[in-house]
Design a protein that fits this description.
single chain; Immunoglobulin-like; 2 domains; 20 strands; 44% strand
């Protein structure tokens, strides 16, 4: 079956959304056969459009909807919301700052598209550019919707000891039945295509970079352990590029941690997710003893 013909999106047709989402809270429960995602969207009606009665229309793909809660109250399908293969529409949202929780189930292990949340060599990984965040949860999946993100990830500790997302780590603890959790917060607003999550049994190469203001930033490159001896070139390149940004543009990195994950299955060369870059391993790993580049 062929994919649908691409649809051109013209700048002249641009229209702001009826709602903004300035803050997002995501809760991931990772299992071998499924992942449950709870998203809490802090919505704000776009007053400039003067559409007080407009419904909220979120997009989603390959999602199993488990529940919709508005301001703490469960909604009824049909009466208060409608769901199709690609949209979730909430008919009425009271006030200017409603909070909507959406619970979905997805299947990363069977996701062979390398879009949204999937597994590569036993590791959970995301790729959300350009419109694949909608494969993780229902959302306004468009680049003009900018939000801060707080992310909680829960998984089996033995199988997935490393739990990563954008921003700075804010907490980590063990849970019953051999599970554990990690929480992350990115205080800087970003579009959803820059969201990232990685969970797996990984090795790490660590270093630090001292910024022009004298602040030390921790640098981490994650990969499967047998690949770590090929990560030093990437670490050196990262430090050179951070210094070049400062020297050339006066831009200083604004988080406490910069991470890179080397994905062995990735549908792009790299993805510039804020604070957690994901690189195609074939383009980032190198060893001076075996590389043919001069």
């Amino acid at each position: 079956m062929k994919d649908a013909a691409p649809i051109s999106i013209q700048l002249k047709d641009y229209r702001q959304p009826d709602f903004w989402i300035p803050e997002v809270e995501l809760d991931f429960h990772l299992f071998e056969d499924k992942t449950v995602v709870r998203s809490l969207l802090h919505l704000k009606r776009n007053e400039s459009l003067k559409t007080p009665n407009a419904p909220l229309v979120l997009v989603g793909e390959k999602l199993k909807l488990l529940g919709v809660v508005l301001n703490g109250r469960a909604l009824k399908e049909g009466d208060e919301y409608a769901v199709t293969e690609t949209t979730l529409t909430v008919f009425e949202l009271p006030g200017s700052d409603p909070k909507l929780q959406v619970v979905v189930e997805i299947d990363p292990k069977s996701n062979l598209s390398c879009e949204g949340l999937y597994q590569t060599a036993g590791t959970f990984c995301t790729q959300c550019e350009a419109e694949s965040f909608r494969r993780i949860t229902y959302f306004l999946d468009r680049p003009d919707v900018m939000a801060t993100y707080t992310v909680r990830i829960e998984a089996d500790k033995a199988k997935y000891p490393v739990l990563l997302s954008n921003g700075n780590p804010t907490g980590r603890k063990d849970l019953p039945e051999g599970r554990h959790e990690a929480t992350w917060h990115d205080p800087h607003k970003k579009p959803c295509y820059l969201f990232a999550l990685v969970a797996g049994d990984l090795g790490v190469l660590e270093d630090t970079f001292r910024t022009r203001s004298g602040r030390d930033v921790k640098l981490q490159i994650y990969a499967r352990r047998h690949l770590l001896d090929r990560c030093q070139h990437a670490m050196d390149s990262l430090k050179w590029s951070m210094k070049w940004d400062e020297d050339t543009y006066g831009l200083e990195y604004d988080l406490d941690l910069f991470m890179i994950f080397c994905a062995e299955e990735f549908n792009m060369g790299a993805m510039e997710n804020k604070g957690l870059n994901v690189f195609n391993a074939s383009y980032v790993l190198a060893n001076n003893e075996t590389a043919t580049d001069t």
